[in-house]
Amino acid sequence: MAAGIPVAVAEQSEAGALYDGMAAIPASARAALGLETARVAGGVILAMRNDPSGFWSKALGFGFTEPVTAELVAHVCDFYRSRGLEKAVIQLAPAVIPGDWLGICAKLKLSPGPVQVKAVRAVDPAVTLGLGGAGLHTGPVPAAQVANWASVMRRGSGMPGEALYQLAAATFGRPGWYPFAAWDGEDLVATATMYVRSGAAQFFGAATLPPARRRGAQSALLAARARAAQAMGCRWLIAETGAETPGRHNSSLHNLLRAGFTAVYHRQDWVWQATATAGR
What we know:
By secondary structure, the chain is an alpha+beta fold. It has 2 domains: 7-115 and 268-277, no CATH class; 121-265, Aminopeptidase. Helices cover 34% and strands 30% of the residues. The chain has an 11-stranded mixed beta sheet with strand order 1-2-3-4-11-5-10-9-8-7-6, sandwiched between helices. The two termini are 37 Å apart.
């Protein structure tokens, strides 16, 4: 347990949301992106060959229905190799890393990458308290604005390629997914989304167009989603963001902390590269 939330809930909420979102992408777009997914040993593997961002090829959610073993990790690496990927990331909560992990990394040529922060908070009466963005209003996204919402999410995040746009557009109207936005008058300027499953609300898709930044849009969207999650009877709010490093300020992390989230653990990315394992 981390700050009261089972680690399995915190990890598999994220893994389940990513897997479900990828499953929603139409077949033609999946083919164009080179997208393949699999469920293995209670976790998920996501592979996207045509991803200039390098973000979407990741494996996570392992260690809760079956232990993390050298054989499991080798299977994940072989999955990526057989799909022609050059690079992917394995994400494991600290609680599930086995005692022989360094040996596994050495054998499979996995190297440490960026560190993520898992942030959670319980849903309680205080969760409804939140500041609104200055001069902005927030709410659910109407169907007529889904294309604009998906476009703003991609542009506001600065993520290259079409993957984020396709994911956002495909999850609109899908069971369990709840898109939100902030508007400046009639202009949609910031986005966020939420995936709800088994009492956990997973937060994703926080993005704000540059002219609207520093006006509290993301704090207002955190509060709007929290209120919606409470109304649905959720128990937990869950989010991930990059850990701060010397000289690097992460506004997303500070927005979460101000909204009452707790950084319950740091999770190391472990990077697999085809060139590093070619001779294995």
